[in-house]
Write a structure and sequence with these properties.
Cytochrome p450; single chain; two-stranded antiparallel sheet; 52% helix
């Protein structure tokens, strides 16, 4: 779906969107709160925590497992594969092995969902029909893989980047904690300020594109569009280098745009809002345990992703 154009994309999108709904996401809100609170419970009494490994990574993995209907007995190996797929510093052969394991597991789980469907997203996708169309086996496996990787990568690093941005801007953190109703609207500002996804999916020009500065991009060229740069565009945002959780947005590009707007956006919003709000409620004295310049990011052109985020709880 990610690399398809209409009409193929339209068919795939319809079949997925009818199952991946805001209603379904809202149904698991209480489970997301439970996952977050359990992780926070484990942090109690510890002076220093790595909020990437101990918090940002396990939340999306656990939530997508719940949403897809992965049985409890399968979640430990599944979480291991998913962490290897999207984590840093894994050898290529480890990533390949994890990728193959996820694909093989997806095939087995799809067969189980066909025989014994339940009220979960994967069962819905297996049995989804639209105008007599349904998803093929290959499309279902690809969709499973996409949902696992995309939900994990984007949400994990959005949580980490957002926490860091707020800790480095204590006045804005104070506004949020003083008015929790701002968490929902602050999401777009945090995404704009430190975009988790650095570049959009590749585009290909079908015809020449003239730009305002007199440059023309020829036809049949590959375009790599910088989402991070777009979020700091002074023509679009006043004082773009300033984090302002009360900023009113006409829209940001972190979830894409148009027909390819991220189908998982409602899930990411709920996950990250709960993760931030519960964290700062439980640990109001949270502070960085390292200087910002000591923090390291993954060596990636696609993701702006912290490798670790050490914080002190007192």
């Amino acid at each position: 779906m990610l690399n398809s154009d209409p009409p193929k994309h339209t068919r795939l999108r319809k079949l997925v969107a009818r199952e991946f709904t805001t209603r379904r996401v809202e149904q698991i809100r209480s489970q997301i709160v439970a996952v977050v609170d359990e992780l926070l419970d484990r942090m109690e009494g510890r002076d220093e925590i790595d909020l990437v490994a101990d918090y940002a990574v396990p939340i999306p993995i656990t939530v997508i497992a719940e949403l897809l209907g992965i049985p409890a007995e399968d979640r430990a190996p599944f979480q291991g594969w998913a962490t290897t797929l999207v984590g840093a510093d894994h050898a290529p052969e480890e990533v390949e092995a994890a990728s193959n394991a996820v694909i093989e597991y997806a095939k087995q789980l799809l067969e189980r969902k066909r025989a014994q469907p339940q009220d979960d997203l994967l069962s819905g996708l297996v049995h989804a029909t639209e105008d007599g169309e349904s998803l093929s086996e290959a499309e279902l496996v690809a969709m499973f893989f996409l949902l696992v990787v995309a939900s994990q990568e984007a949400s994990t690093h959005m949580i980490g980047n957002s926490i860091l941005a707020l800790l480095r801007n204590p006045d804005q953190l104070a506004k949020l904690t003083g008015a929790p109703e701002l968490y929902g609207s602050a999401f777009d500002e945090l995404m704009r300020y430190d975009s988790t996804v650095s570049i959009a999916s590749f585009r290909f020009t079908k015809e020449p594109i003239p730009l305002s500065d007199g440059v023309t991009i020829p036809a049949e060229e590959i375009l790599v569009l910088s989402l991070g740069s777009a979020g700091r565009d002074p023509h679009k945002f006043e004082q773009p280098e300033v984090l302002d959780v009360t900023r009113k947005h006409a829209g940001v590009l972190g979830f894409g745009h148009g027909v390819h707007y991220c189908v998982g956006a409602p899930l990411a919003r709920v996950e990250i809002e709960i993760a931030l709000r519960r964290l700062f409620e439980r640990f109001p004295q949270l502070r960085l345990a390292r200087q910002p310049q000591e923090l390291r990011y993954r060596n990636s052109t696609l993701m702006r992703a912290l490798t670790a985020l050490p914080v002190a709880t007192k």
